[in-house]
Amino acid sequence: MSKKNQAPVDVAPPYQAVARHGVSPKPSHDEAARFDFLANFNKVLSGTLGPGNKLAYDKRVLPTFKKEHGREPKDRFEIRHAMNKDPFHQIWSASKRNSMEMRQQNGRAMVLRQLDELDAKARALNESVPDTLELNPDVQVPRYQAAVDIHCMPGSYHGEERPGDVSAGANYDCGIFATTAGGLGALSDGGGAALADWIRKERPGWTPRRILDIGCTIGHNIVPVALAFPETEIIAIDTAAPSLRYGHARAQSLGAKNIKFIQMNAEDLSRYEYGHFDWVQTTMFLHETSGKALPRIIEEGYRVLAEGGLMLHLEQPQYSDEMPLYEQFIRDWDAFNNNEPFWSAMHALDLKGIMQKSGFAKEELFVTGVRAVVDRSIFPEAPTGEAEDHGRAAVWNAYGAWKGGKPA
Amino acid sequence: MSDSPLDWMALANKKAKGKRPEFFDEPEDDRIYSILIALVGEVSVLRTRLDTVERLLDEKGTISRDDIENFAPNREAGFERGALIREYILRVMRGPIQAMESLQEQEPPIEDVSRELKEI
Fold it and tell me: What are chain A's domains?
């Protein structure tokens, strides 16, 4: 609807435009309308009101801080403490937190209302191909996944409302639309689609023999890769059984038959020999681990990676001395307000250093930008810069390395 | 596995593990604001439902509950409904938006302007 003399209006696509797969919860009219509200509310919070935080900082918070301390803030934490007292930032943060909580409430209401059907559908799909789903009740949920419910998702990735259910996976899946305002596309898989796209350009003609996806949750980022490489054997691991149950059923219904979902902790990949995989990756996962687990996962990943193989980690950009402190502060919002307790520390890590310590040579490392690949005729281009929704932007940095150098 | 019946309405409200930050100076304000924003969302849902009813009536002259539940907007209608929601959100978020605008320019209190006008 672009009428003459009207500025283009940035709205989220309707939730009804989201693609359905074999275990998608079916929204009632009002459930879809709730997500439509949240998607557009998030757009206004990031696009329209987001820049107000910087204004409040420049005009009010920073001058007061300098007056009180006689110096500039020395880190993002000082900025956060000062900003938390600012009335504009208070109402913005409260709005955003409520939007996150409502997304969970709305998603859970939709999923739990129809859990009998969803569980039955998942069970039928999972039992039809039992070989590609391997659950292991001995796998413990690590402290870094259990300390709090990540992104305010009650029960996190591993919670169950009744034994053997898929509620956690289904709720996670359906609400990604609302928090990203449709920025990840019809199947919320724009990140995975971007990976498939990127590798085809980066190394045309390559077919990896085996891929390991670590921290796969419901598999939305590995399915597009599996579909792009149907001959490749893919192992997708996670510690959360309810997400794996849902993810396996989802992958099956989308025709990705070459992924084996295994309940496993990536800190110990001893089941696989040196050089077993041609590609080892995580997508938006490292920030949900911990200070000691992260290097262990990278080390194990390096060990099981073949010579000439690719390691790739998709994350929001790391903080650096070049990144202004205010930007570090606003990128940190989820850490303290949306239950991402390792987010802040992880983004300040020297990821390249950790990868080198695991065995890569400095010249084998690279960083590249990756943008979500989605159907732009329905789904909007994700805003960048000041209007982007930090923490949920559909653009990432890929921290990668070719073991022993990229093959010619 | 037993598919025991769930009180899904109550379970949907479960709190996420992890202490909730307080955003306002008074904790009661956080509680009231949560109710307010939830209500803002529900008014939007009602308005969207009304839009569905209007569109179905325009198209068919008569509707059933099933028509409403199964309504999926086409691309143009989807955009129009998104714009309707955006307009609504901008209207109810007027306060914070204007607070943001007022940050861009230091304005004197009206009392000062009043004193000034008396003298000119």
Answer: 20-408 (3.40.50.150)
Q: Which residue, chain included where needed, has tokens 């920030």? A: A287
The helix/strand/coil state of A237 is: strand
Residues B3 and A123: their CA atoms lie apart, in Å, by: 12
Closest CB from A29, A49, A162 relative to B4: A162
- Give the model's confidence band at A1: pLDDT under 50 very low, under 70 low, under 90 confident, else very high: very low
Low-confidence stretches of chain B (pLDDT < 50) are 1
User: What distance in Å separates residue A197's CA from the closest CA in chain B?
Assistant: 26
Are B38 and A38 in contact by the 8 Å Cβ rule? The answer is no
Assign A86 a pLDDT band (cuts: 50, 70, 90): very high
Task: Please report, for residues A205, A210, A266, A362, B110, the alpha-carbon distance to residue A274 in angstroms, rounded to integers and kept in the order given.
Answer: 25, 13, 14, 21, 74
pTM: 0.94
| Contact of A43 with A99, CB cutoff 8 Å | no
pLDDT band at A146 (very low <50, low <70, confident <90, very high): very high
Looking at the complex, report in whole angstroms how far the Cα of residue B59 sits from the nearest Cα belonging to chain A: 18
Contact A365, A356 (CB under 8 A): yes
Q: Alpha-carbon torsion A259, A260, A266, A271, what sign?
A: negative
Confidence of residue A380 (pLDDT cuts 50, 70, 90): low
Residue A83: Cβ-neighbour burial (10 angstroms; 0-12, 13-18, 19+) = buried
Handedness of CA B87, B88, B93, B95 (dihedral sign): positive
Q: Do B99 and A149 touch (CB under 8 A)?
A: no
From chain B, pick out residues whose CB is under 8 angstroms from the CB of A10: 86
Q: Do B16 and A44 touch (CB under 8 A)?
A: no
C-alpha distances in angstroms, A70 versus A64, A67, A238, B40? 10, 5, 49, 42
Binary contact (B37, A95; C-beta < 8 A): yes
- Residue A32 pLDDT greater than 90, yes or no: yes
ipTM at complex level: 0.92
Q: Per the CB < 8 Å rule, is B23 touching A60?
A: no
- What pLDDT shows up at residue A280? 98
